[in-house]
Write a structure and sequence with these properties.
The protein is of the alpha/beta class. The protein has helices spanning 20-31, 38-51, 59-67, 96-106, 109-130, 140-144, 158-170, 175-192, 215-231, and strands at 8-13, 34-37, 71-73, 82-84, 87-88, 132-137, 150-155, 206-209.
Amino acid sequence: MTSQPTPFVIGIDGPSGSGKSSVSRAVATRLGAGYLDTGAMYRALTWWCRHTEVDLGDAAAITRAALGLPLTIGDDPAAPTVLVDGTDVAEAIRTSEISSLVSTIATVPEVRVEMQRRQRELIEDIAERHGACVAEGRDVTTVIAPDAPVRILLTASEEARLRRRSLEVHGASDRAAIEATRDQVVRRDRDDSTVSQFTEAAEGVRVVDTSDLDFEGSVAAVMALVDAARTR
């Protein structure tokens, strides 16, 4: 009998603009692993609540929406898909409107319990099918997959994070573009930090500061930690 390799999970957390999504996708691609963007799940729920006209001031209604969320999320790092009730929302969930509302959804405790349950199941399924899963978000390293062989907090200075996000959203990093992006980055991180620890590394979580690293350097830093864990 040939033994099957043990599924390998890499958890990557970090604040907005740290580079965790692009770096996570690149790492998953290089490993031939599946990929899960846990933040996209909260964004998808936010879109669903808006689409179905759920009162965002009603935590119980948001929780009911979460429990019934008809979500299908793809695990291909090269082309991650997000479908809600059969509708492709991959672009719609990245709008400024959704970005400004997602913390309202994500900070409801009962919603987090349901989404975390789904995320654990998805990570297990993805890792079993692909041999490895790279999962990124806010609390993957501490709550979703605290026993993952590789747990990384990807961080960067506020200046670097604002510059990157303004380039991504506005195509510019001048003062006006950065200020237009500040609410999405700083306020959202502040709100999310009330229910999730992603600004400081928990015990056993390795820190990769990308402030002075370019994209390839950031990927290389994460891959070095992955390679070290795989050889242990």
